[in-house]
Specification:
Layout: E1 2-3, E2 10-16, E3 19-24, E4 27-32, E5 52-56, E6 62-66, E7 74-78, E8 81-85, H1 100-112, E9 118-122, H2 128-136, E10 139-144, H3 147-159, E11 167-171, H4 174-184, E12 190-193, E13 198-200, E14 206-208, H5 209-221, E15 230-235, H6 242-257, E16 260-269, E17 276-286
Parallel strand pairs: 1-16, 4-5, 9-10, 9-12, 10-11, 12-15
Antiparallel strand pairs: 2-3, 3-4, 5-6, 7-8, 13-14, 15-17, 16-17
Helix pairs in contact: 1-2, 5-6
Length: about 290
């Protein structure tokens, strides 16, 4: 498992009974996590001294219960990056801290090339990977179907002094955007993709991962440049194992272009126990192996 170990402003303090106890800067939150099926004793005192707790609803969704005043948004840092945090619906905060292992990989690849790279970030969410790639010196095209998420991503870029960077902000259905890029014969040296299990495009387009992922990957292969450097496929979908994602990238990219594909879970170390909580999976094609 690849673990995110370089955080100072984020900490997974404890995990038990279907919940995470987390620190985002100086704000302590409790959020549900269905993978936490163990019921170890909650000996950490901060379980009883949090700022807010997210409760799921039996009817779907849920809401935050606020115990202490927290700002509408606040900032946390990761290395030389800064991100806005907010308590959103569906338990989210605008950042997935475990993804820092992928930001680090992309930044290292970008900095290691003796040429400027053009990166496509599909399903770009709040743009943490976009800011990491821009900071490393790449040009980035950030695509998400949600206008609100693209606005948030732009705010994160501004926080990092990257508002004048080589970046395009696109609100579009990701499949349709890739199809248009194929017709335009545009190409990218690296692609980062974190598709949801289910979603809707800006015009109501329905996305179902199991039905459309292979097709999207095929389309993306056609917009990889001849000297492409990497492809990152990330997923939080239960059942889409690292091995399945590795098979996809092996079949579609590695067999044609060489390089190496490797895949694993990504996770976070729980401070209280020293164990690692799996938080998703990622497969990477690395042209240089």
């Amino acid at each position: 498992m690849r673990t995110a170990e370089n955080w100072s402003d984020y900490e997974l303090i404890d995990a038990s009974g279907g919940e995470r106890l987390e620190r985002f800067g100086n704000i302590i939150l409790i959020r549900p996590d269905p993978q936490i099926i163990w019921h170890t004793k909650k000996e950490e005192k901060l379980w009883h001294n949090v700022h807010a707790r997210y409760h799921r609803s039996s009817k779907g969704g849920g809401s935050w219960e606020i115990y202490k005043k927290i700002p509408d948004q606040w900032e946390i840092n990761y290395k030389n990056l800064t991100f806005n945090i907010k308590t959103m619906g569906f338990k989210h905060t605008g950042i997935f801290p475990e993804q820092s292992v992928n930001w680090d990989f992309a930044a290292k690849k970008i900095q290691g090339e003796n040429r400027p790279l053009n990166i496509l970030n599909l399903f770009g969410y709040t743009g943490c990977a976009t800011s990491a790639c821009l900071k490393a010196g790449a040009a980035v095209c950030h695509v998400d179907a949600s206008k609100g998420m693209v606005t948030w991503a732009r705010e994160n870029a501004v926080l990092n002094g990257l508002e004048k960077g080589h970046v395009r902000w696109i609100v579009d259905d990701c499949i349709k955007f890739v199809q248009k890029e194929r017709r335009r014969q545009n190409a990218y040296d690296g692609i980062i993709m974190d598709p949801p299990s289910y979603g809707r495009g800006p015009k109501g387009e329905i996305w179902k991962l199991e039905d459309q992922l292979f097709y999207l990957l095929e389309q993306c292969c056609d917009i990889l440049s001849k000297d492409a450097s990497f492809f990152i496929l990330n997923s939080y979908t239960t059942g889409l194992s690292p091995s399945v994602m590795a098979y996809l990238l092996n079949s579609l990219i590695q067999k044609k272009r060489g390089g190496k594909v490797y895949a694993d879970e990504i996770g976070l170390i729980v401070s209280q126990s020293g164990c690692t909580l799996p938080c998703g999976a990622a497969a990477i094609w690395d042209a240089r192996g």
